Amino acid sequence: MTVQLEKHKMFIIFRTLLILIHLLYSLRLIIYNSCLIVHRKCIGYWYKKNPKIEIEMLVHSMNKLRKLPEHVVILGEKKDCIKDSIQIISWCITLGIPFISFYGRKDFLSQHENALKQEFAVRRPELMEYINWSQLHIPRKENGITGSNTVIRILLPCKNSGKGGVVLLTQHLAEAVTTKNLKIEEINENFICEKMTLKGIPDPDLALIHGHICSTYGFLPWHIRTTGFVTLPECHNVSVKDFIWILKKYSKREQRYGE
């Protein structure tokens, strides 16, 4: 009986400690996000969302970066993410980042592609000529919008977009093995990865996650083997300083498989 009472007391103590730690962590997040909101409002008031100032900041920072990503993917979209998406697209155009993807479980942006295009045309009409919404193979350009005819490829994959490719590849492999055009021993990890790679589109170098939960949101694992993950602030209205900070963090990181 005494042993059971001791176990019960220990259970209550550990449970209380766990609740206390959870409350302290939640309080920390609330304070952090509140300070971040105030900071962003001050930055927004100071710069007044001036595209020219943002371009100057981005170009100035780009000269100090060791490398830039070729493919950026945004994970964890929400219904009010169109404004942030437009901002990130315009910054990627400025820096000459040729590919950007938006992906989430609810497929909000892929289902509202026309709304995104229309809103972008209203907010940043001068950048519409630099965007390609449909072409698969895109020649590589240099120096962002400081060069000529720069094109950025906007990808809006849905959660089912990769399933058809997996099924089709499985059918082709089974047929090739059955007809003895392919040996089972030849089917390995490198072989599968090569077949599943999107032609003309590099794997994402950098993934930006909305919110404090680090999740791939179902993004296909063979496309993110060397992807660096960075968590964006949970609140919206991502500032150009946030984006520059992320790029600096990416520039210092050595990419390896599984990181």
From TrEMBL:
The listed locations are: Endoplasmic reticulum membrane
Instruction: Say if the entry is tagged with keyword Transmembrane helix.
Output: yes
Q: What is its EC number?
A: 2.5.1.87
GO molecular function term, any single one? ditrans,polycis-polyprenyl diphosphate synthase [(2E,6E)-farnesyl diphosphate specific] activity
Q: Which UniProt keywords apply?
A: Endoplasmic reticulum, Magnesium, Membrane, Transferase, Transmembrane, Transmembrane helix
One GO CC term of this entry?
Answer: dehydrodolichyl diphosphate synthase complex
Q: Where are the transmembrane segments?
A: 12-32
What's its catalytic activity? n isopentenyl diphosphate + (2E,6E)-farnesyl diphosphate = a di-trans,poly-cis-polyprenyl diphosphate + n diphosphate
Swiss-Prot/TrEMBL cofactor(s): Mg(2+)
Q: In which pathway does it act?
A: Protein modification; protein glycosylation
Q: What class of enzyme is it?
A: transferase
Q: Which family does it belong to?
A: Belongs to the UPP synthase family.
Q: What is this protein called?
A: ditrans,polycis-polyprenyl diphosphate synthase [(2E,6E)-farnesyldiphosphate specific]
Q: From which source organism is this entry? A: Vespula germanica
